[in-house]
Amino acid sequence: MKKRLLILCLIVASVSLLWLQLPAAASPDPQAQYATPTALPDGRIIYIVQAGDTCLRISLLTGVSVDYLRTTNQLNENCDLREGQQLLIGIGGPAVVSPTPGPSATPAPTKPTPTPGSGGTGRVCVLMYLDANGDGLRQETEMGVEGGAISVASSNGQYSQTLNTSSAIDPDTEDAQRTCFVNLEPGSYTVSGGVPDGYNPTTTLNVAVEVAPGDTRYVDFGVQLRTATATPDEKQNSPLLGIVGILLLLIGAGLGVYTWKTLSKK
Predict the structure, then answer these.
(1) Which of 49, 70, 102, 164 could, after both became Cys, cross-link 41 (CB 3.0–4.6 A)?
(2) For the whole prediction, is pTM greater than 0.70?
(3) 194 near 148, Cβ under 8 Å?
(4) What is the largest CA-CA distance in the chain?
(5) What dihedral angle (degrees, nearest 10) is formed by the CA atoms of 175, 176, 178, 179?
(6) How does strand 206-211 pair with strand 44-48?
(7) 10 to each of 93, 238, 259, 261, 262, how far by Cα in Å?
(8) Is the pLDDT of residue 257 over 60?
(9) Distance CA 163, CA 145 (A)
(10) For residue range 59-118, what is the model confidence (pLDDT) as tens digits?
């Protein structure tokens, strides 16, 4: 009788331990109902990070690989996210209903300057600003950041230069906080930006511009502080409990068979 009671207890304990493993594996994803975001006017498709999101969960929801999420959005090796963060998950067709450009870095209208250079040359002035709200559009309160890199190269390969960005403010300078490339011969140029450590881009970082004699071309690149926050703890059960439960179940089954054979002989 005592043996039967012991076997029964072992079987109950084993089943209980196995049951503890089931919720973690079978719990439904609360975000299973997912609607693909509408592409922005510039074609970018943005996903807004929700509470409890991980790169794996976003990958399963959107069909975008974890590697794509990490490299495109310049995430760290742990793929850390923060609630409310905007992630680029793809490029779609531009929205025809919107007549205005989306939040991508585009050259600002040409502004004449008194004497941009000699010999009919032009200038390209670039601002890498802190995009606090992450909308890709610069407001007057969003100032420049230092530590970034700006490169300007001509399409004919005759000009290439890289300068660092600055956050210094000079009220007597028309292009305060901008990194300016002067004495540029008229023609086509490519402007590229490199974000400082600890920042993520909120706009595209590669823009083509046309420089005319006596003109200044303005380009804005937005960046945002990269804040690594720990994702909310999720209930995780150690796989050791499952192994122990299986072993106990096997032991209980073995004892049950042994007891049954012993009783049968009697």
Answers:
(1) 102
(2) no
(3) yes
(4) 114
(5) 90
(6) unpaired
(7) 62, 20, 14, 19, 19
(8) yes
(9) 13
(10) 898 888 988 888 888 889 888 999 999 988 888 654 444 445 555 555 655 555 444 444
The C-alpha atoms of residue 240 and residue 237 are separated, in whole angstroms, by 8
Instruction: With cut-offs at 50, 70 and 90, classify the pLDDT of residue 31.
Output: very low
What string of H, E and C letters represents the secondary structure of the chain? CHHHHHHHHHHHHHHHHHHHHHHHHHCCCCCCCCCCCCCCCCCEEEEECCCCCCHHHHHHHHCCCHHHHHHHCCCCCCCCCCCCCEEEEEECCCCCCCCCCCCCCCCEEEEECCCCCCCCCEEEEEEEEECCCCCCCCCCCCCECCCCEEEEEECCCCCEEEEECCCCCCCCCCCCCCEEEEEECCEEEEEEEECCCCEEECCCCEEEEEECCCEEEEEEEEEEECCCCCCCCCCCCCHHHHHHHHHHHHHHHHHHHHHHHHHHHC
Closest among 212, 192, 190 to 122, alpha carbons compared: 212
pLDDT for residue 196 is more than 80: yes
Tokens at residue 137, please?
């559009």
Measured CA to CA, the distance from residue 155 to residue 207 in angstroms comes to 12
Give the pLDDT confidence score for residue 228 in this predicted structure: 45
d(CA 100, CA 123): 26
**Cα–Cα dist 254/247, whole Å:** 10
Reading the block at residue 212, the tokens are 């005319």
CB within 8 A of 99, min separation 6: which ones? Answer: none
**8-27: per-residue pLDDT in tens?**
666 766 666 555 555 443 34
Angle of helix 2-26 relative to helix 239-265, nearest 10 degrees, comes to 150
